[in-house]
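Ligand-bound model needed. calcium ion.
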Amino acid sequence: MSKKTPFISTQDEEAIVAAIQEAEKNTSGEIRVHIEAHTDEDHYEHAKKVFDELKMHETELRNGVLFYIAVNDHKFVILGDQGINDKVADNFWDTTKEMMQNYFRKGAFKEGLVEGILKAGQELKIHFPYQDDDTDELSNEISKSS
Ligand code: CA
Ligand code: CA
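Prediction:
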């Protein structure tokens, strides 16, 4: 199989980017999605590296959130920056994760991601409401590697 096999269709990708835009209307938090096939590393540790590579720690309020997905490994990680971790309980992402898992189990990849992103926006709104002078600090485009 070619390494360039897309993980998602252009249409699905557009839906995911639209969900990020929608979620970021609720919160100053910045949501990014990184999709890849596989990693040999521990998924959580690897997600932290991706977080750094995407310079996601450079938001003013340290409230970036990474949705990391390793498609072939059937693994995903939701990783928030320090500003979020300082304010919320350790189980903050649990309901979002569970909801996404339910979709993924049914093979509904795009739906799971879209709903997860929108839910993250709602959850973040409580601690990091959208501000009038909000800027798009991190790109809404999906980051991918093979
Ligand atoms: Ca923003
Ligand atoms: Ca953004």
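The pocket of calcium ion (ligand 1) is lined by residues 24, 28, 30, 134-137 (CB under 6 Å).
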